[in-house]
Specification:
66% of the residues lie in helices and 0% in strands. It is mainly alpha-helical. It has a domain of 103 residues. Helix 3 packs antiparallel against helix 5 and helix 4 packs across helix 5.
Length: 155
C-alpha cells in the first residue's frame, strides 16, 4: 500500500508543463545551438555512441583555428612558390587556379572552412575527432614541406 502511494506521488510530480528536451537526442542544429548548456555527455554509453551538443570545448576551438591558420599559410606559401617558378601538385587546386585565378584562394578557404564547421558540429563522434587530428597533422606536414621548398628556392 505504501509503495503504491509513493509511485502515484512520483507520477504526479513527473507531470510537468514543459517537456524535458533531454528525452530526445540533441539535433545537429536547434534553437539551443547558441544558447544551450549541453557541452558533453555524462553517460559512458552516450560518449561511445556520440551525438550533438550545444557548446564546444576550447581544445576543439584551438584545433579548428590551427587548421584555418595552416590553410591560410598553405595558400600564402603556394602563391610564393608559384611566383618563384614552382607548380601546384594538387590537380584540383591547379584546376581551380587555372579556372578562377586569384579567386581560387577564396574558394579554397571557403571549402576548408565549411569542412571545419561540419567537423565541429560532429565533433562528439569518434570519426570526426580522428578526422580533425589527421587534418591538422596533414596541413602541418604540407606547410613544413612548403617551408623546405621556400628555403631551397631562396638558396
Amino acid at each position: 500500500m505504501y509503495i503504491r502511494v509513493h509511485i502515484r506521488t512520483f507520477h504526479q510530480m513527473d507531470n510537468r508543463a514543459i517537456q524535458d528536451r533531454r528525452k530526445k537526442p540533441t539535433p545537429i542544429l536547434s534553437r539551443y545551438t547558441l544558447s544551450g548548456r549541453r557541452c558533453s555527455f555524462r553517460r559512458a554509453e552516450d560518449q561511445r555512441k556520440g551525438g550533438y551538443v550545444d557548446c564546444y570545448g576550447q581544445s576543439l576551438f584551438f584545433y579548428l583555428l590551427v587548421i584555418a591558420g595552416l590553410n591560410i599559410l598553405d595558400a600564402f606559401f603556394t602563391i610564393i612558390i608559384l611566383e618563384s617558378g614552382g607548380w601546384e601538385v594538387n590537380p584540383i587546386v591547379r584546376w581551380a587556379i587555372d579556372s578562377y585565378g586569384s579567386n581560387a584562394w577564396c574558394l579554397k578557404f571557403a571549402v576548408v572552412s565549411c569542412g571545419a564547421i561540419l567537423l565541429c558540429l560532429h565533433s562528439h563522434f569518434r570519426m570526426a575527432k580522428v578526422s580533425i587530428m589527421v587534418i591538422a597533422v596533414l596541413f602541418s606536414g604540407v606547410v613544413m614541406y612548403q617551408l623546405l621548398l621556400l628555403r631551397y628556392i631562396s638558396m
